[in-house]
Structure formats: C-alpha cells, structure tokens
Amino acid sequence: xxxxxxxxxxxxxxxxxxxxxxxxxxxxxxxxxxxxxxxxxxxxxxxxxxxxxxxxxxxxxxxxxxxxxxxxxxxxxxxxxxxxxxxxxxxxxxxxxxxxxxxxxxxxxxxxxxxxxxxxxxxxxxxxxxxxxxxxxxxxxxxxxxxxxxxxxxxxxxxxxxxxxxxxxxxxxxxxxxxxxxxxxxxxxxxxxxxxxxxxxxxxxxxxxxxxxxxxxxxxxxxxxxxxxxxxxxxxxxxxxxxxxxxxxxxxxxxxxxxxxxxxxxxxxxxxxxxxxxxxxxxxxxxxxxxxxxxxxxxxxxxxxxxxxxxxxx
Length: 314
Description:
Blueprint: E1 2-5, H1 18-38, H2 41-67, H3 81-110, H4 117-139, H5 146-175, H6 180-207, H7 217-225, E2 232-242, E3 245-254, H8 259-277, E4 279-288, H9 302-313
Parallel strand pairs: 3-4
Antiparallel strand pairs: 1-4, 2-3
C-alpha cells in the first residue's frame, strides 16, 4: 500500500486579510452614522452587512492560521477543515442578514419614509469604493479556497449592494419615489441569500465527504484502468478534505507480481490522478485476484460488508 501528496496548492498567508479587515471595520461606523442621518434603509442594511464582513474576515483570518498548523496524532489530516467550517459560518451569517433585510424592507414598503437622496448617493459611492477595493484584495486565490471565497462574497456582495444604493439615490432624486430604497434592499437581500446558499451547499457537501462536484468518477476509473498492469479497481472513495485538497483511496487488482512492479503501477496511477484530477492524497492498495470483493463502491460497516459478500456469492 502507498500514498502520495501533491503540494501544488500552497496555503495562502492569513496576513493578506488584515488590511481589508481594518478598512472594513473603520468604515462600518461611518456608514452606520450616515444611514441614520439620511434615514436610508439601503445604507443601514449595507452597514449591517459590512459589520458581518468584519466578522467574516476575522473568522477567515483565524481559520487560515489554523489551517497552516501541521498534522499531529490528534489531527492526522491537520486543520484543513477549519476553513470549511469558517465558510459554513460565514454563509449562515449571510443568510441571517438577508432575512433581516427582507423583514425591514417589508416594513418600509408598507410605509416608505423620506430618504435624503444626496447623502444616500454620496455615502454609497464611498462605500462602493471601499467594498470593491477590499473585495479585490481578497479575490486572489478565492477560486480554489472556499474559506476565502466566503469572505470575498461578503465583500463583493457589499460592493454590489452599495452600487444598488447609488442607483436608488439617483432614482429618488429624479422621481421622488421613496419606495425605491426598500426595493433596492430586497434585491440586495436576494443576491446575498443566493450566494449564501451556494457556499453553504458546497461546504455541507465537503463535510459529508461527497465526491467533488466537478470530478467525473467514471472518467477517472477509465483512465486508471488504462494504466499498464491494472486489471480492475474496487472499494473506491473520492472526497474533499477542503475545497482545494482532494483525497482518494482504492483497492487495485493486479496480476500476482513482484513488489517493484507494483510500485511502478502505483507511480503511474498517482501521476494520472495528480495531473488529470488534482488529487493531492492518494492511497492505493494493490491486490491479486481473489483477495477482496470487486464492488466499485464499498459499503462501510458490518452490514455493508455482509451485503457485499452476498452480492459476490450471487
């Protein structure tokens, strides 16, 4: 049995989140005061969302520090899942703030208050610059890191919401329709909720050790079977430790061969898994015919083993 590690995906330094965290925290108080002065729900909800951004960035920063800790006897896979837990918490706060926005917007749709359009537009324009700038600072690497992506979505959502507040201010200035302010808030809340659901769904899938969404298991098996010396594969498991770190374990059926030949087969399989499927941690158990049941996906537990044996006998 052997396993390999692909270290191509290096961890991102948590220090890169410090500047966005400080900038966002400093802006929250200013935007909250301006929202109260202008009596604008769009600004108040954006300030509330910015406050969750501060918490999200702080949580992501701490999770990144945890992830960098080495594995040990108590955590043999290290702390890679810390970022997934942070992403789950961040997506939950996004959903909660969206529901709060919907409730307050409903109250204001029933009785729209007067909004100072000039203050709304001015503060929203400044907020847009702050949010867009901090989102840009966090974006690098967020495509492959769910923890960073959750922080980025918080900041990018704020940038979009403040742009919506600018549009609401312009609309109120030209039409006098005060209802535009809560309507924009509803749209902002819907966008936040959609992003929260997307992140939460992916984090839950990883925590349940589901197969990575963009990985074709059938294609993977076909590629492995093309490796010279591989006769079949069974007891196959593919899962994600984090959004950028994949793992695989499998039993590989070969002829009754010497150890050196088996090692060559394992190296060839590991190369395929790393190059085509970005699988960083592969554990391969070589077997000769008759050693194990040949179910591709093995059921865990005593009942599952009994079921597999019954299938083999039938």
